[in-house]
Amino acid sequence: MRREFELIMPVPVPSRSGIIHLYQSMNLADAFAIRLPAGTSGNPDLLARFILSHQPSWIGWLTNVRDAVVACFGLKTAKHLASLANRIGPFKVYSTNQAEIVLGEDDKHLDFRISILCSGEAEPEGSRQLVFSTVVQCHNRLGRAYLFMIAPFHRLVVKASLLRAARVGWPLATCP
Predict the structure, then answer these.
(1) Domains, the chain, ordered by start
(2) Are 103 and 114 in contact (CB under 8 A)?
(3) What global pTM score does this model have?
């Protein structure tokens, strides 16, 4: 699997992303890019739903462990958040356009946003690039401690989610 992760490259958060200047100070800002094959949909909403619905099963187990721990601190659980309206899984949809969807959540310990940004123009061979970015702003010590604990898992989850989506086969572009 290590070599397969080479398909996913760490990159700077794209300057054209709606999350790049969202917070005055960021405690985490990372982004990972993957090349989408020719013929893949460029719809960021569809791509976000696809990535989040095809995650490896171990991510669900980690989420359950996270929920059990954070509930003790009065933080929002993924299970509760997923039951609310205007969501993709546990993530609230903040904005969407032809190139990008911004998801996230605000809580008492931290706020975060996720961007799924798809390059508008296909490369000469027909491929596009998808960039999955995350920015986090902590509000207090609990937020900083939480982020310290989950940051390594976060990066692994993002990479594994992108890799799993690529293995399953990205959704195809549909003709109008």
Answers:
(1) 4-168 (3.30.530)
(2) yes
(3) 0.89
